Task: inverse folding
């Protein structure tokens, strides 16, 4: 196993920085997220235009604390754009997006949003391929101490236990000492989710998590995400309807940048408007 010194030497500065931006692992203190009214996320009347084209059109939706929400809808419906707005990557033309009662995400930087407790999983995992599963989780866990200070860390017993718990959650205990670059496509996705979890985000945004996965990997991912709900709020965007059916509680259907329908899977599947624009394809 590589020593931490070796890790430090082989880690590229920009790569570490990318990871820190995507996970919020820079040293900004987290405020309390006030969820006393139920929702953790209030998206209200959001509009986003690209050259006159309305990618989000008066989008309003609420996510409850601890909820697992599925978001579906045709290509171009605005699902990814919505995540871009929530993470500060895209500024809306108008509207608000509150995280808890008091944090308006539309006025925060990407850094501030990530460090306030919103983690986003990208399709291309931001893992460190040359390091083991354990090391990846270790680095993710310790980066909140600041970029270079984090590389001087020594794990406490408590942190080791926590990493072991995360490895169990993401089903990678056997791969503890495997280099991340050698994992299967699905395992890499789980590792990235694990790296996000070590940051203990309150809200996790996951865009098309099962694309390219085997049937068995999809089943594990369903278990993983449903297991995370409760402790975290989880928003999942996905086109794979078998997967959505296997995890769905409440489903929101986006169409042309707007909420077309919302409800449980039965209601959604039988909604003629949803069948017309999406499920009937
Ligand atoms: N940066 C951008 N510049 C111009 N147009 C954009 C930009 N980002 C998104 N769009 C457009 O906005 C619309 C919504 O795109 P978005 O990626 O949010 O859809 P989506 O629901 O995620 O679709 P998919 O299911 O295909 O991922 C599309 O028509 C897309 O081409
Ligand atoms: Mg998309």
Result:
């Amino acid at each position: 196993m590589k020593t931490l010194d070796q890790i430090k030497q082989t880690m590229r500065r920009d790569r570490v920085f990318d990871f820190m931006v995507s996970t919020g692992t820079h040293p900004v203190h987290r405020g309390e997220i006030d969820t006393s009214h139920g929702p953790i996320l209030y998206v209200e009347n959001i509009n986003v235009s690209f050259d006159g084209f309305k990618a989000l059109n008066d989008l309003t939706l609420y996510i409850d604390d601890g909820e697992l929400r599925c978001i579906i809808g045709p290509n171009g419906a605005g699902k990814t754009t919505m995540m871009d707005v929530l993470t500060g990557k895209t500024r809306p033309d108008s509207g608000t997006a509150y995280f808890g009662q008091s944090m308006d995400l539309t006025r925060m930087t990407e850094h501030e949003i990530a460090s306030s407790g919103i983690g986003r999983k990208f399709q291309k995992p931001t893992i460190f391929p040359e390091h083991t599963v354990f090391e990846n989780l270790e680095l993710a866990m310790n980066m909140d101490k600041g970029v270079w200070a984090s590389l001087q860390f020594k794990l406490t017993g408590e942190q080791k236990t926590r990493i072991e718990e995360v490895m169990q959650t993401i089903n990678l205990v056997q791969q503890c000492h495997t280099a991340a670059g050698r994992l299967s496509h699905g395992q890499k996705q789980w590792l990235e989710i694990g790296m996000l979890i070590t940051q203990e985000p309150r809200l996790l945004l996951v865009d098309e998590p099962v694309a390219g996965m085997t049937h068995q990997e999809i089943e594990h991912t369903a278990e993983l995400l449903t297991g995370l709900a409760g402790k975290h709020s989880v928003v999942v965007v996905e086109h794979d309807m078998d997967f959505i059916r296997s995890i769905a509680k409440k489903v929101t259907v986006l169409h042309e940048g707007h909420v077309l329908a919302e409800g449980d899977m039965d209601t959604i599947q039988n909604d003629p408007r949803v069948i017309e624009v999406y499920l009937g394809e």
Remarks:
- Residues 36 and 117 are 17 Å apart (CA to CA).
- The two ends are 51 Å apart (CA to CA).
